[in-house]
Amino acid sequence: MALTVLLDLRLKPEAVLGAPAMLRDILTGTRAFEGCLGVDVLLDCDDPAHMILLERWASADADAAYREWRAGAGATELGSLLASAPQVSMFETASDI
Hints:
By secondary structure, the chain is α+β, with helices and mostly antiparallel strands. Helix content is 27%, strand content 30%. It has a four-stranded antiparallel beta sheet.
């Protein structure tokens, strides 16, 4: 079953200008990862230090493999831009509602 993941990011104020370039590089790898169906970046209209990544995955297993890769060989410096730990929420589509 497909999975939608919301990754809620709060940037350090001094990282706001440099974040898009780093995210472009990071998301190239994310979008190319097996099972990734797409990633959209949502920018807060009122707070330039707040963004949400909307990720779509073919399955929970594909997402888990991606998270494992990012925790190891695919690690990035994204954490250096963040004011707080990212909040991750995972959703399945309800087909009976």
